[in-house]
UniProtKB/TrEMBL annotation, chains A, B, C, D, E, F:
Signal peptide start and end residues: none
PANTHER family named in the record: D-GLUCOSIDE 3-DEHYDROGENASE, UDP-N-ACETYL-2-AMINO-2-DEOXY-D-GLUCURONATE OXIDASE
Residue ranges occupied by any GFO/IDH/MocA-like oxidoreductase domain in the UniProt entry: 136-271
A Pfam family reported for this protein in Swiss-Prot or TrEMBL: GFO_IDH_MocA
This protein's name: Gfo/Idh/MocA family oxidoreductase
Gene3D superfamilies: Dihydrodipicolinate Reductase, domain 2, NAD(P)-binding Rossmann-like Domain
Matches recorded under InterPro entries: Gfo/Idh/MocA-like_OxRdtase_N, Gfo/Idh/MocA_Oxidoreductase, GFO_IDH_MocA-like_dom, NAD(P)-bd_dom_sf
């Protein structure tokens, strides 16, 4: 395989801590040639720190440079996922875009269409797919250990986890709150277990009481006056084959556990808990609880970057693809619409 | 207050173990004068065992007897709740009817209308209202400790708890499965926290995979071939003021805990867990977990019988009344309808 | 099936508490017609207490009585297992004999031979075979879940459990100490997992330090001066197919746990722990620990008596049979011989 | 005392991580002058890293160099323990040889004989002797707190701990599997409690089922096709004074605990558990469990190196000496012979 | 020994539940001939229930009856301990008096003087002396295991344990609150470890905040308006030999544990915790925690009654004697005096 | 505010590890200009390490230097607290002096008087005041959550924590043992809850048994022959308003926990435990246990240094001030006097 040339768009924490180290750890597959940030100082600082040849504050220039990239990692703010991804696809680049896919369902659809038209890989960075627990859950499901899965409880709940930095409470930049930032992760995992089929019925409620009231923050203090998004969202999704998902996600909720990221999966032959991974089933006619004490820790970003590169190389990959991203974004939009009623 | 004359209709376990002992423990308020069962032998055996003057196998005879009752405890099978309650109300008796109120919403409505027309008390035996945990939860809510409650998770889940006796899997007698038998309890509790308002949107799914497949039973073995009801039901209820309830109930589910009866209540000022009762809130600007280690055990049937007698005597009472029963039955029906789609 | 007539020989605690209640609980299969004890007062007292028609102090008379028994429960002291079992077999009775089979290997061999010659069932009361844990272990083994079992650690250890009553420390009556009384139970269970094959190599050590020194007793005080048996025995058994058993048993040992009865079973596909029953294996390529939280409690004496009656009726049965008892007694004798070296 | 000149033979992990740092930490007692490895690059790299003056790939040259060593640390592969130790002794060096002493009992005997003949110290690096727990156990034993020790269970068990690197599964290099690599440690500890007397009876079984079948590895993946050694060994050792040892060791076994290194020691006055160190005894006529919560952590390699240097200086030392090594190697050989039957 | 004739004065719970059953369990040593209560109906009811020949409502009559007692159990209210004990001693009876000895120090002194003058045994029913934990603590101390004891923390603390019945909050009847009812128990135990020497310095504080404020009761509700005694008392006692006791006792205190009865004993060689009994010391130069997992349960009232009868028979006894009772009462009085300052 | 110039007197561990880093972390408020130590080499080494301009071995010179300090951190040995603090105050410096304030009460009084006379801030470094637990406790108290506090148990107990270095056992340098070094911390905290009022009655006992006997040390070995101070001190303080404190402190005590630093605070409305911070109270008429799971970790020395600088700047501050230090020193002296009786 030829070594692909990669460029980063977006100079924030997630570029610095996740994507650049993952790319740098794969020199036999990818070469990081450029970084682009609105703020040229940020771009240059990261380029220096990580030994990246080129720094830009204008994506168009980057795409026109001699050493133009084959693929783009789009780690800009949510509202920029769509424009920069479109621009990259138009420039015949593969794109790994941060989650959520976009702000609107129509945007994610457009992005998927363009990727298909241009024959490029568009993928989303739902890196929780790469945890050893989810991999094992998928394997168990694929091998028939769960039977048919008919109900999933998907939770991403924080007690007081409204980030005190960034734009997490700004609706026009983020497109939403807990659902857009956290809930999409476990929604993606749950959909992955149901073949990423699309629900035919959705009902949801969203809230912003605690976000607007303020209080103790476990991720820094937030500005209650500028809190524009939902701090909690509860939804029920029903699918054509009668499977169902209960989704619960919060930035802030009066609950005991500070951070609870989990799936409870109910199948005809066994149930599964994601964290810690467990199976509940019958063995020799008796109820059995199975625990898996030795799952190996994984660098999930590295694994997801590899999955993206595999897709770029035409290999099988468990990355969240463009079509899945479009389904997910339609569901997110439907949840918000249901909540507005 | 005069001592009220009571009669029991229905000669099963719940009469023998719950209602008769409760009535017998309150001799200063009520006198148990008769018991009526389709099976006269059962009726006579219970009358002998508990020292009840009269035994009947025909309710009409009972209502015409010299020592006619002032109130009826209706502990017949679900499909008989409506006819015997109507007959009792027509005979100017107060009625404490076992849960669920009826099989159909229209029946519960008719029962409530007749009670009102005849000026009689009609109440339902949701005795979990009387646990010390729920009493404390209500007190905390009423005194403003939770702020405004906006979301409730109501669970009544059994891992393998399909009863191996009785008619629990017979749809025409029971009207349904886990929801009719178990879910209604925690639904009643949750509605009680929301002022028993009526949801304007409902979505639900029901399942019968395990019930129809058979397997290990923790409450005796059941006949998978005669399993006609749902073994699990998941629903989302949304209310006009934007509050919401997630209801989960099962006779059988591949989950760890054998029996899980709980409410998680999320309010603007505090969250509450019902069992063990706990509050999650802020004190002096810090997150606090409050536990209540010394709640006193209660005879919940006795307390509910007293609540019913208080209602008969025109006193304030926290019994589930006829109007509430009608609301609950409409919700149950709406859940089943949603699940049929 | 005709109802069999049963008689008890031996008027001690184990007759009163275990065997008679079990027989009495099975009136459709067995009728208890007589009890025989050296002490006619004991015999009569038990006959009165349990409503048994006849009481004897002479077995020969019993066998000649009009209402002569079809089967005998021999619950005499160890050294009487042989003579009374021989007498019963000679009188054409089936025999359920208490464990251990006898004092000497030759006795157990003689007993097995006579049973075969007379076409009678001779069985031994190793009732731990009937625990739900051992039943499940056997089922898992038979269904191939463990693969091939190659090593078993069989423990029956007490910290200070020398009984302060009876003849447990008298060598001529008991034939031995911890091994004869306790170790035989777990040895029988372990052999049952290996097809009751006979080891070709045995090494063992026995001790009596604590028994002869005296000290704190958790089952009453014992007379250190009359302590004639081993208080601990450790042995290694190797089988022709290379399987092996490590047997550890004690009346008294300086160890933490007061009473430790357990098997650890190591198979090619899974390992098992008997108490609490657990399996250690691999699932989906990962190490898994399986626990079985809902095994039902069992009346193990009742189940063993039924197993004996099944054998008498020619049905399949998991009772310890005469041939197995002879194997076990040869092993016990070999252990003692090895320890004498 | 003069400062001794030391040289290392063997350039692997154990030289780099254990022996060189220990020697370097004792500049007042020993000077590390040379390192010898078959691979001169390895030798030079270690010499550079640790500031060692000379590097060789030929031991003979090293012994002839001007700065010839007074003592040798032999940390070569097992099959080289014998030749290099013999060569070092012939060159009048003291030797601290890694465990096991050798592959064959005859080798270890030869090595001990030559050491005695040349008046040199030959010792083996059983560094677990230096843990605070074993030191305390020895002290308690020596001061009579255990009374007479009569049985020891010595365990070194791994669930899936076949190293995925090195030569651990190569029989000609290692001489064996779990027993040679792991079991010898706890066997040495147990023998140390019994005065290193020699057993007069041994029985053992070895297995290689899991090693040859492959599966999940907790210490990397291993090559099941090249698995030539035992993955588990169970043995019973009986001593002339009737003491006994049960030895259990495994690279791979279907058991719960990933790594279990322990001794259970049974004495007439008290029993002891090594990890965590505990005593089980009687105080004031009552059973007592004693725990020792504040044992200090120790650098056990440093302590063992000091013990070796003490021996070289003619001081009392608890190092495993040449005679003990010969006894241990004879037992290992006897175990393997018994297992072959 | 002749069988002693006993009579009970006081017809309350403690007579019925503790003293009468203990006396009745010792027919070979004592015969219960009479019971005397102010309320003749109570006396007769107890006499009937327990098969006691005579019932009186006048002690003088009892002492003059034909079947006059040799010993008296005085289980009247605290303020009657003095008059009835004096009367009994004057009538040449031995007396076992309930704790506390009296209301005033002078009373206890008078009682001791009269007992000595008349040569009768006067003893107090501090039955916690008979727990297996305290017996073991005393044995350990007497055998030198603790070295010299220099400080004791004696706690009898209840969180909300003001009895909702009886006269526990009435100062003229009880003489005090938590100290008189609860604290005296652990004070007696602590003094027993220090040879019942008398402190030369005392400082104390008492409180009644919670008692007078009311609130949740774990032993029934109490009448805050009639709360006349201390609900908590903290005192420091210093002895001529520099030993010291910290005494803490409460009926009600805002603390976590509902009931905390314990001694922490600090000696030069070891410290001890009473419940659960533990020793903290050094063994082989290491800190050791000793636990005693198998202490046998005891009927402490029966053992204390036997101790009293032993004293009456002139045998050694660990009963609290008249002189000790006088010391204890002086300390109690000194504590109250210190608290008044 | 102008930046204050600071100098350190005392070149030990506490200067190096605590005070210098804290000052260096606050460049906007304070500039560290000099360090003075008896040992000029120590002074220079610290100056080099921390980039401090000037190093002295003579305080007088330092006060006369051009760059003379505005404030002094006095971290000399206890017996030098008085002379150097007096010298600093005379030179018109603010002083933050290490605890305890001094050796004698008169010294602390003199120091407070001079500070007042010269209008300088004198404060003591009781940095435990700055833990998040104590801050929360104070806030809860100030907001009335505890009601009125009437009893405090203040513990600073070590099992074997006599430091094996420094002068901790030297009476003339330290002024005392556990009380001077450890007890003063929790005494300061307790007094802070009672408005730093002064007790009118004190009783105390001190001991030195373990210190003089020697044994296992958890903080290094100590020289039992040079042990001149108390290893344990128990005291009871009673205040004019009837509040009381039980103080327990030890370097060495036969107790389970190695280090136990805690306050138990008993108030009329709630009780509090300092570590982990908890409240015990009533909510809705039920007993409640409140835990605070998310208190943020704090750099307590940094916070205390800021509190001192705030005081220097005339801002409100929770630093221990000169008057409080004088009260505390009087109490310490009274405790020692009481213990001498």
């Amino acid at each position: 395989m030829p070594i692909l040339k990669a460029a980063i768009i977006g100079g924030g924490h997630i570029a610095d801590q996740n994507h650049i180290p993952a790319l740098k750890a794969l020199p036999e597959r990818v070469e990081l040639v450029a970084i682009c940030s609105r703020d040229i100082h940020k771009a240059r600082a990261l380029a220096d720190k990580h030994d990246i040849p080129l720094a830009f504050d204008n994506a168009a220039e980057m795409f026109e440079s001699d050493n133009r990239p084959d693929l783009i990692i789009n780690c800009t703010a949510n509202h920029l996922h769509h424009p920069f991804t479109m621009q990259a696809l138009e420039n015949n680049c593969h794109v790994l875009c941060e989650k959520p896919p976009a702000i609107l369902a129509a945007q994610a659809g457009e992005m998927a269409d363009l990727a298909q038209k241009n024959g490029k890989v568009l993928a989303y960075n739902f890196q929780l797919r790469q945890t050893p627990e989810y991999s094992l859950l998928k394997r168990a499901l694929d091998n028939g250990r769960l039977g048919e899965v008919y109900h999933i409880k998907a939770n991403f709940l924080r007690r007081r986890g409204i980030p005190g930095w960034g734009n997490f409470t700004n609706k026009s930049i983020q497109g939403g709150g807990a659902l857009m930032d956290l809930g999409v992760h476990v929604l993606d995992l749950a959909l992955g277990l149901l073949g990423y089929s699309e629900p035919d019925r959705i009902i949801a409620n969203t809230y912003d009481y605690i976000g607007k009231a303020g209080g103790k923050g476990l991720m820094g203090g937030w500005d209650a006056e500028k809190f524009e998004v939902e701090d909690a969202c509860f939804a029920h999704l029903s699918f054509p084959d009668n499977a169902s998902i209960t989704l619960s996600t919060s930035f802030a909720l009066n609950t005991k556990i500070p951070k609870n990221v989990n799936l409870e999966v109910f199948g005809t032959k066994a149930g599964a808990m994601l964290n810690p991974f467990s199976l509940y089933s019958e063995v020799e006619g008796e109820l059995v609880d199975m625990e898996f004490p030795h799952l190996e820790e994984t660098d999930i970003q590295l694994k997801n970057t590899i999955a993206f590169l595999d897709a770029c190389d035409g290999k099988p990959s468990n990355i969240c693809n463009a079509a899945q991203g479009a389904v997910l974004q339609r569901i997110v939009e439907a949840i918000y619409k249901s909540a507005e009623k």
